[in-house]
Amino acid sequence: MKSLVVYSSQSGNTEKMARAAYEALPDPKEIHPVENAPDPSNFDLVVVGFWLKAGNPDPKTQEFLKKVTGTRLFLFSTHGAAAGSAHANKAMETAKSLAGGARVIGTFDCQGEVNSELLKKVKERPNPPEWIDEADTAVGHPDENDLKALQEKIREALSREGL
Ligand SMILES: Cc1cc2nc3c(=O)[nH]c(=O)nc-3n(C[C@H](O)[C@H](O)[C@H](O)COP(=O)(O)O)c2cc1C
Fold first, then answer.
1. CATH code for the domain of 104
2. Is 82 in the pocket of ligand 1 (CB under 6 A)?
3. Measured in angstroms, how far is the CA atom of residue 159 from the centroid of ligand 1?
4. Structural domains counted in the chain
5. Ligand 1 centre from 162 Cα, in Å?
6. Which of 46, 120, 126, 148 shows its CA 20 to 30 Å from the CA of 38?
7. Mean of the pLDDT values across residues 91-119?
């Protein structure tokens, strides 16, 4: 089984998670930022990590997911909103539907610290988005527990697949 980890990350949170995901996978494996991602159809398992932008998977990941077909897919995200919130779940569903031709074998999401200047600016908007108050608790995430929880989810998914 050949695995590929592809991640999109502006401020490093999703990259940190992606490196933990990579560690949890058996050889042979590759890891690439989404900007340099190879053709996913050459892999048996593709793990894609994205961050949330305006309630959706970030735009680069959206484009990449459209190319993921006919393979196993594990998705994870980082976001300012609370883990497991409706906001985060909705973005995950969007990611799944973009990769409609792939077989999703697992998902994981956790908070990722939001750039403090951005947080301040967004809070000052006349109509701040619903997730912004939850973003205060994202400070320090992803932490060691988030990284371990992602690895555990990946191992569980591999074992369900008999891999
Ligand atoms: C421009 C911008 C828009 C964002 N929009 C959302 C959002 O809609 N929902 C959310 O929960 N977090 C949002 N965030 C927070 C990021 O998704 C979060 O901090 C994430 O962990 C960043 O990942 P990265 O460090 O890999 O870039 C936004 C951050 C930025 C910079």
1. 3.40.50.360
2. no
3. 31
4. 1
5. 34
6. 148
7. 97
Q: Which of 53, 94, 109, 115 to mutate to test the pocket of ligand 1 (most atoms within 8 A of CB)?
A: 53
For 126, counting Cβ atoms within 10 Å of its Cβ (0-12 exposed, 13-18 middle, 19+ buried), the class is: exposed
> What is the residue range of 101's domain?
3-160
* pLDDT given at position 150: 98
- CB of residue 79 inside a 6 A radius of ligand 1: yes
Q: Helix, strand, or coil here: 42?
A: helix
Measured in angstroms, how far is the CA atom of residue 2 from the centroid of ligand 1?
Answer: 30
CA 125 to chain centre: 27
> For 133-154, what is each residue's pLDDT tens digit?
999 999 999 999 999 999 999 9
Q: Please report the pLDDT score of residue 54 as a whole number.
A: 95
